[in-house]
Design brief:
Length: 256
C-alpha cells in the first residue's frame, strides 16, 4: 500500500483530515472575498480561521497547547530510518553522508508516527537540516498540515569537526571516545569531535526562537534529544516530550 492510500485507510485516523482542512480554508477564502476585505487582512484572517478549525477538529482547546506552568511544550521526534547505500556508493564523505534519504520502511515509520496523538495541537514543525530529518518532517507536515522551519542548530552531533570522516564506522569510533570522556573532547585527541555541551547550547538557542508558540514538534537526532531528556535508546521516530523555557538546563550525562 502506498503512503497516500495508507493515509486514507482505517489504519491512520488523524483527528483532522487534509481534505476537510483544505476545503474549509477555501470556503473561508470565498466568503471573505465577497466581503471585499483587503488582501493583507484577508490572508491573516483566513490563517487564523484555518488554525482554529483544525484545532477544533483535533479535539483540542487552548489550554491543551501549553506545558506545565505555562511553559512551552516541545515534542521531540527522532528522524526515521535512513538509507546510506546511495551516499556510500558515491563515496561521499563528512556531511555528504547526511544527504542520505529514508528507506521505504523509514517512510512508513514516519507515516505511522504522524498519527500519534502526542502531536495533536502542535502549531509548527522545527527540523534539523539533514535529509533524514527533513524527509521525516515533510511527512508529518503533509499529514498534519503544519509549516516547517529549518534550524541549523538542530543538526546531529559532529563526530569529526574536520568533516573528513568517510564511514559510519569512523563516526562510531568517535562516539566511543566521546562516551569514554563524558562528552568532552580531550585536548590531545586525534579525533576532534563536538562537545556535548555545545550540542545542547546550539540546539537550545535554536529552540528559543520559537518561544511564542505554545506547542511545537521538533524533528532532530538522538544525541541532540538526549541533551534535553535522557533516553537510553530512542527508536526511529521515537517521541519524547518536555516543558521548555529559557531556564531549561542540559540533561545529566549518562552512559547508554
Amino acid at each position: 500500500m502506498d503512503s497516500a492510500a495508507w493515509h486514507n485507510s482505517k489504519e491512520c485516523r488523524l483527528p483532522t483530515g487534509n481534505q476537510h482542512g483544505i476545503k474549509r480554508k477555501a470556503d473561508f477564502s470565498k466568503s471573505l472575498f465577497n466581503k471585499n476585505s483587503g488582501k493583507g487582512e484577508l490572508e491573516l484572517y483566513v490563517g487564523k480561521l484555518t488554525r482554529t478549525v483544525l484545532r477544533r477538529e483535533r479535539g483540542g482547546n487552548p489550554s491543551d497547547l501549553a506545558g506545565e506552568n505555562g511553559m512551552q511544550r516541545i515534542v521531540f521526534i527522532r528522524h526515521s530510518e535512513p538509507d546510506y547505500s546511495f551516499v556510500t556508493e558515491r563515496k561521499y564523505q563528512g556531511h555528504g553522508l547526511d544527504l542520505a534519504q529514508l528507506t521505504e520502511n523509514g517512510i512508513q515509520i514516519a507515516e505511522n508516527a504522524s498519527c500519534d496523538s502526542r502531536l495533536n495541537n502542535a502549531e509548527i514543525i522545527v527540523s534539523s537540516p539533514y535529509t533524514r530529518a527533513l524527509q521525516t518532517a515533510a511527512i508529518i507536515s503533509k499529514n498534519r498540515q503544519l509549516d516547517i522551519k529549518i534550524e541549523l542548530g538542530l543538526h546531529e552531533w559532529m563526530p569529526d569537526l574536520s568533516f573528513q570522516y568517510s564511514s559510519k564506522a569512523e563516526a562510531s569510533q568517535a562516539d566511543k571516545l566521546c562516551l569514554e570522556y563524558n562528552g568532552v573532547c580531550p585536548d590531545d585527541s586525534e579525533i576532534r569531535f563536538e562537545n556535548f555541551e555545545n550540542v545542547f547550547n546550539r540546539a537550545k538557542n535554536a529552540l528559543l526562537r520559537y518561544d511564542k508558540y505554545k506547542k511545537i514538534i521538533v524533528v532532530t537526532h538522538q544525541i541532540v534529544i538526549r541533551r534535553f531528556v535522557f533516553t537510553p535508546d530512542i527508536a526511529f521516530c521515537g517521541i519524547s516530550e518536555i516543558d521548555f523555557d529559557e531556564s531549561f538546563s542540559c540533561a545529566e550525562f549518562k552512559f547508554y
